[in-house]
Amino acid sequence: xxxxxLFLLLLLAGxxxxxxxxxxxxxxWNAVVYPVVGPKAEAIAVRGERIAAVGTNATVKVxxxxxxxxVDLGGATVVPGLIDSHxxxxxxxxxxxGRLDLVQTKSYDQAIAMVREAAAKxxxxxxxxxxxxxxxxxxxxxxxxxxxxxAASPENPVWLTRVDGHMGLANRKAMELAGITRATPNPPGxxxxxxxxxxxxxxxxxxxxxxxxxxxRGARAGFADMVLAAQEACLKVGLTAVHDAGVSPSxxxxxxGLDGDGRxxxxxxxxxxxxARIPEWFERNPPHRGRRLTIRACKMFIxxxxxxxxxxxxxxxxxxPGYTGLPxxxxxxxxxxxxxxxxHGYQICTHAIGDRGCREALDAYEAAMKAVPARDPRLRIEHxxxxxxxxxxxxxxxGVIASMQQTHATSDMRWAKDRVGPERVKxxxxxxxxxxxxxxxxxxxxxxxxxxxxLWGFYAAVTRQDQDGRxxxxxxxxxxxxxEEALRSFTLDxxxxxxxxxxxxxxEPGKLADFTVFSKDILTVPPREILATRCLRTVIxxxxxxxx
Length: 548
Description:
Layout: H1 3-15, E1 26-29, E2 32-33, E3 43-47, E4 50-55, H2 57-61, E5 69-72, E6 77-80, E7 82-87, H3 89-96, E8 100-101, H4 108-121, E9 128-133, H5 147-152, E10 158-162, E11 167-170, H6 172-177, E12 190-194, E13 200-206, H7 209-213, H8 223-236, E14 239-247, H9 252-260, E15 267-273, H10 278-284, E16 288-289, E17 293-301, H11 331-344, E18 347-352, H12 355-371, E19 380-383, H13 392-398, E20 401-405, H14 406-412, H15 416-424, H16 431-436, E21 441-444, H17 454-463, H18 483-489, H19 492-496, E22 515-518, H20 527-530, E23 535-540, E24 543-547
Parallel strand pairs: 1-5, 2-6, 7-14, 8-9, 9-10, 14-15, 15-17, 17-18, 18-19, 19-20, 20-21
Antiparallel strand pairs: 1-3, 3-4, 6-22, 10-11, 11-13, 12-13, 16-17, 22-23, 23-24
């Protein structure tokens, strides 16, 4: 018997017995409630961690007992608790606990100035770490190189990751510590970029990033502190759950500790970082379900990112002739990992961006599901940014979930056509093509690559515009989502992507009382007002965990 069914039976029994003892703990009324499943409502009753009733003010308020808290929401809008299907808690937390955040820099000069200031305060040999630079924000097409960075910090190693996380820039000191020379070979699935003189220019792509990252010592904040910092930011914008896309096995004890002592308020669906040896880990570690922490998924990579030209393409990049990107993991390894995941109850979630990356991932999944039949595997492709249009129906045929981040489209539209040309770009960020093919889209942000505010993704989904309203009419506007589809991608379909739709994702009696309260009606206000909407209250399991 499911928890929801048991709850409903108890509710019915209580209604025919002693109503005073079964009255709701709280009733939230005078609101515009969008349950996602069922008609629009006005009020929600909560008992314990679950929803007791959803309906009009009159039908719900009559359930109140002497101890019921009545919360007048003053006409605010209530939606099911928003879920980010692809974020990075420690990555966001690192930017909130001392790492340089370069996302707002408008030039390489500004980034250099931030590094110079950090170097002046750093101790001898201390690493200076930063991230989220994007040369497109600096008005340049070319990537930066290390010379000016090395001059700004000659004695302290510096490592600055690009906004997509698939490229990093190191200064000379960092490369010296890592033993990088012109003779250092490219690792499998990675590239050390070099200048005209054949010397490393400081840029490391995909698996080559590990050459520098492995040398970093003395991180300022521990994993638990970073998660707690990220959690605070997520609750403030109305998120009730995050699918943490890539957690090292060594970090799970800290996560479990936060869950065990009650400091973990967000619901976390954690994906263990995968590789060729992860099947051995599956054998030793069965799926885990705690109070707010679930571990039953694995994050794999088959290619890199389009921004750093690491996405794996069927034909060469339009702006780098003869080059088709990087296979970060071999399709054979991915197939074996998928088979092991199916055997041991782990969902496989594969980062695949380029058309060849997506096709190879689909091929590997299809082979794995034939080898290890499973009733409901729900394999996922993370990002699915630029598949071949002809491959989109395969997602539906195979039951593969497209975990897509809507703000990627409005960030990448500036250069996507340059990368793949006018024909291949028709498959880029193609939400309408996916939906029309019958594919479930789980919405997210990929924070801190993009901002953690889910309304930014909601706005991008329904407008195909950036936050300045560009371009007029939206970029490839035929791929827009309706507002109802966008909301579903951040609620019920996101819950489905984590096998949790029976408990979350819609506001129905018996489901967990996870909901988000907004200052404006995001289903009806003019599009620009979506961006001005504030989260007034975040409720998880009946507990108000954030209030404006």
